[in-house]
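haha ok so turns out i had the wrong file open the whole time. this is the CORRECT one, sorry everyone. sequence first:
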Amino acid sequence: MTSAGEALGRAARSAVSFGRVIAIIRLPSAEGAARVGEILADAGLPAVEVTLTTPGALSAIRELRAAVSGACLVGAGSVRTAEQAVSAHEAGAQFLVTPTVRPAVLSATDLPVVCGALTPTEIETAALAGAALVKVFPASAFGPGYVRELLAPMPELRLAPTGGITADSVAAYAAAGAVAVGVGSALVDPRLVAAGDWGALRSRAAGFLAAATSAFPVDHEPRVPSDGVSPPPTS
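then structure:
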């Protein structure tokens, strides 16, 4: 049986390659999804997730993998069943993202999983089950202070707040101890995609990348927020 320490160690190793920002593509159709992913990769974002709620998502994942040629990680989001996990893997997804704690998804493939959770119990359960990162979702419900409070008793957790993240809020989440953020409509706005406004998308991507580069520690190790005992994050 895998020990808690082994599970956390494996998760920490697999989390390193995600970088600071996981870009989320959630659109009413797959048309343009691969193009969006290419632009995000060209802008330097290290990981792009196409949600399975996007019609034709698996085809978009295949197309995007071929288009970016390793420039960024391509993942599948909103994965809720083992069957979806396997299908995403077969389509070429390099990581999976769940909205909630889904043990079946965590064990369905050998892909790293960014596991969604909200309560302290859910978050620790996901981490101990081997999640590469724990997606604190929806982060906007509680804000950066919640991340800080979670890490006070559990500083080893690797948290990626997601939901309502803006370029302006990245620094606050990094200072609270997050190791990455997941970014959806504040980056990939379906209205911009429908209009083909690729310049605006590039500008948003550059803004998030600049904010994250400035805010997060280079080594990506979890930091316990400054509370008079533990050191604050360093840049």
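Confidence is low (pLDDT under 50) at residues 1-16, 220-235.
again sry for the mixup
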